[in-house]
Amino acid sequence: MADNKKKAETQYQKKLKYNNAYNRENYRSFSIRFNINDEADLIQWLEGREGVKAYLTELIRNDIKKTAKKAEKAEKTEKPEKEGKKKKKAK
């Protein structure tokens, strides 16, 4: 019986080692803390979400899109100015 227990522990350790290595290779973890006195509103809000990860992921993706649109809009407004300056220099 002691041999079976050692074998089971060894198999568990191997699986744990494999899972840890896989997670290190394929995932990135972020941790955040909220103060229960100063940020109770944020805690309550997040606890009310069905899935915090999905909620935060959606917020970040929307922010990425919003930032990209702002950059694209800024780039469009800068191009005519730059082109106008180039034409003046060419004359």
Describe this structure in words.
The structure is a single chain. This protein has three helices and no strands. It has 91 residues and is mostly helical. The longest helix is centred in the C-terminal third of the chain and has 39 residues, at 52-90. The model has no long low-confidence stretch (mean pLDDT 88).
Give the structure's gist in a few sentences.
By secondary structure, this protein is mostly helical. The protein has 3 helices and no strands.
Topology (SSEs and partners):
Layout: H1 2-26, H2 40-47, H3 52-90
Summary tags:
91 residues; mainly alpha; elongated
Mean pLDDT: 88
What is the terminal-to-terminal distance? 93 Å
User: By helix and strand content, what is the structural category?
Assistant: mainly alpha
Low-confidence stretches: none
What fraction, in percent, of the residue positions are helical?
A: over 70%
SSE arrangement, N to C? HHH
Number of DSSP-assigned strands = 0
